[in-house]
Fold:
Amino acid sequence: MLPDPIRKFADLFAALPGIGPRQARRLAFYLISQGKSVIAELAKTIYELSEIKSCSQCFASYTNPKTTAALCSVCSDPQRRPDVIAVVEKETDLISLEKTKKFPGRYLILGELKKDGILDAVQKLRLNSLKNFIKRELKGQAEEIVLAINPTTYGNINAEMISQELRGAAKNITRLGRGIPTGGEIEFADEDTLGEALQNRS
Ligand SMILES: [Zn+2]
Structure:
């Protein structure tokens, strides 16, 4: 019989994506062999994930222990243009775009898009919160909304749906320019390619 702490650990970890019961048990024995300080460090690191907050404007995850502000570092940066907004699918896409250092504006993370282009309730809420922000802070119209969505078949369908939802909310609604191969993904584009696609948006 497995001791209770191991069984408990294995049950919890086996419920995580990509980890089965056998791997969870192996992980437990491995950690036990590493000793108390490694286990304590891991426990602390896991606990710190509970301090991650979701930005109330762009929905990126962030930690800001110094203030109680509900905004991430991009949304609270006065140097970033509030009237140029990139709509992205995933947080990893935001990170890829940030790495290019070529985007002066802010973001909205929509969450994983469906193949058929139908936006779910959360995505509609997020688009509405963007529209409200534009009404409140930008006198009803942003300068530009960049749909930084993968140039794949489902990405194109979704971009069409999103631009319908956002009609009238910006002077220009653009897509990333050439550079990212058709069918390619933003997350995997190198910085130069993505930077170029950002500058050539149309
Ligand atoms: Zn934010």
Observations:
- Residues 56 and 185 are 26 Å apart (CA to CA).
